[in-house]
């Protein structure tokens, strides 16, 4: 029989502990019958152990293909342990039995494996079970012994105290451990993203360096063609794209130098940022109509050299989405609210598939139009300057991209 769950999982450890408990129960009962107390009711005790063993086999068969189980199923398993242990103890002295404190074990396991609601349910069940063993089983047996009754009452109060303190402490420790694990997972994810961005940056720098020489050579050839064929239409058409390549390369070199020097850039006004975005979009996508609405006066934001290219990526993506849908209008809305500046970019494209929308900007997402690298770089830049990026599909079609940046001053 193939079993999927491992001994390290919560399910595997629970079933392993129960198997050990069943074997120990059988051994202790046999020792008690043979050497200590021969008046123990044989048939009921062995019947309970047999039913518990059967339940254990059924659980293994049912969950053999599951690596983990739900919190509800784990709670049912723990409740079964409380029930079997309570019934067994009811034939072996009830609350006066030295092993009655084992009812605390399911509470501790619950505090480690399930949420607080289920922990409270299991703890309350253990307390009720102990109360039943104390009142219905133990007290009628010792109603003549005052000192024994006080002792058993003290044991019951001690058990309540142990459940409250132990479960409370374990639950708090587990919560802190889970918070730390979540923080470590987030840190690892961010580190992997930074390594990914570093690899992309290195590849971009290498490609840019390799393209610089061919583009310079093409510029020289273009100048010769302009001298020989000044009226040829192809020469004029080539001049625009090559000029854009040269401008982009110069801009990339300038940004690289700023990052290399690690200079602390001064704040830049949002009016200047929007003007740059408008100019760059006019050069790259002259056929797109860009309408800009500034609802509030200009403010100052971080002067990071990669900020404008990152915001430009959002507008370029909007332009590409418009081209695929044969649309030509992009709407930019900028305003300041509180201590944040908002830039909303609205296109008229066909939108983004919902299953990819949550991952865009956070990881590389393969699609028919690319891998989402531009959004990944934009998201990383905005995070570096304590900004945010939000993407959402619009009901009327298109995507609304919202860049949120902290305000560092007033223009």
TrEMBL record:
Q: What UniProt keywords apply to this chain's record, in alphabetical order?
A: ATP-binding, Kinase, Membrane, Nucleotide-binding, Transferase, Transmembrane, Transmembrane helix
Catalytic reaction(s) noted: ATP + protein L-histidine = ADP + protein N-phospho-L-histidine
List, alphabetically, the PROSITE patterns matched: HIS_KIN
Q: Which GO terms describe its molecular function?
A: ATP binding; phosphorelay sensor kinase activity
Task: Read off the Gene3D superfamilies from this record.
Answer: 1.10.287.130, Histidine kinase-like ATPase, C-terminal domain
Q: Which GO terms describe its cellular component?
A: plasma membrane
Every Histidine kinase domain range: 206-409
Q: What is its EC number?
A: 2.7.13.3
User: Which ranges does the record mark as transmembrane?
Assistant: 15-36, 45-63, 75-95, 102-132, 152-174
Tell me which domain of life the UniProt entry assigns to the organism this sequence originates from.
Bacteria
State the name under which the record lists this protein. histidine kinase
């Amino acid at each position: 029989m193939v079993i999927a769950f491992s001994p390290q999982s919560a399910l595997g450890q629970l079933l392993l502990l129960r198997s050990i408990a069943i074997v120990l129960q059988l051994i202790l009962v046999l020792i008690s019958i043979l050497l200590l107390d021969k008046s123990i009711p044989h048939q009921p005790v062995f019947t309970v152990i047999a039913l518990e063993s059967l339940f254990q086999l059924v659980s293994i068969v049912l969950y053999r293909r599951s690596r983990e189980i739900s919190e509800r199923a784990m709670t049912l398993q723990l409740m079964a342990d409380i029930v079997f242990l309570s019934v067994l103890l009811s034939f072996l002295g009830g609350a006066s039995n030295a092993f009655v404190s084992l009812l605390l074990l399911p509470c501790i396991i619950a505090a480690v494996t399930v949420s607080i609601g289920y922990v409270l349910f299991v703890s309350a069940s253990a307390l009720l079970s102990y109360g039943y063993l104390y009142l219905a089983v133990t007290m009628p047996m010792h109603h003549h012994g005052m000192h024994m009754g006080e002792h058993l009452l003290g044991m019951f109060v001690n058990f309540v105290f142990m459940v409250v303190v132990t479960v409370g402490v374990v639950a708090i420790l587990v919560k802190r451990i889970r918070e730390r694990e979540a923080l470590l997972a987030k840190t690892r994810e961010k580190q992997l993203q930074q390594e990914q961005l570093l690899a992309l940056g290195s590849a971009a720098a290498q490609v840019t360096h390799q393209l610089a020489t061919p583009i310079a050579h093409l510029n020289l050839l273009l100048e010769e063609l302009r001298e020989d064929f000044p009226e040829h239409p192809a020469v004029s058409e080539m001049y625009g794209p090559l000029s854009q390549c040269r401008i982009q390369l110069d801009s990339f070199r300038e940004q690289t130098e700023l990052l290399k020097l690690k200079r602390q850039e001064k704040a830049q006004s949002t009016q200047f940022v929007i003007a740059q975005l408008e100019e760059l979009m006019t050069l790259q996508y002259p056929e797109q109509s860009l309408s800009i609405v500034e609802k509030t006066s200009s403010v100052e934001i971080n002067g990071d050299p990669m900020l404008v290219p990152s915001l430009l990526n959002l507008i370029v993506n909007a332009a590409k989405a418009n081209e695929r849908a044969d649309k030509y209008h992009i709407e930019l809305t900028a305003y300041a609210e509180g201590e944040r500046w908002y830039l909303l970019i609205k296109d008229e494209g066909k939108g983004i598939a919902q299953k990819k929308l949550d991952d865009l900007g956070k990881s590389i997402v393969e699609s028919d139009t690319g891998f989402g690298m531009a959004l990944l770089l934009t998201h990383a830049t905005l995070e570096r300057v304590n900004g945010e990026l939000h993407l959402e599909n619009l009901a009327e079609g298109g995507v609304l991209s919202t860049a949120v940046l902290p305000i560092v001053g007033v223009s």
